[in-house]
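U., I forgot to send this yesterday:
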Amino acid sequence: MNEQVDKMIADWDKNFDALMESDRVAKEQGILVGRYVSEPFADGKAYYKIVAESKTKVKIEVVTGIGDDWVLPYWGEKASISKAYAQRQIQGREALEKLFSRK
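Result:
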């Protein structure tokens, strides 16, 4: 492959790994800030990191530098969404991960 393409893919992998690490650390700490939510969009997913939390809402920001970098039209680059929705989305993702990790 082309060196530029190899570097681009390596950067995407590094950035995605950083998002997964942030999610793992936040989960261990029992907090939402640092976790991520994703929504299906086009031929992939849009990823948003939780950057702030209040009693009923979380603030999210789109994650870029990980591949497709989709931005949802209804959330844009930054949004405030229901905390309960974010929690359900994370629980659903973790349930699927657990289901598919069984051997």
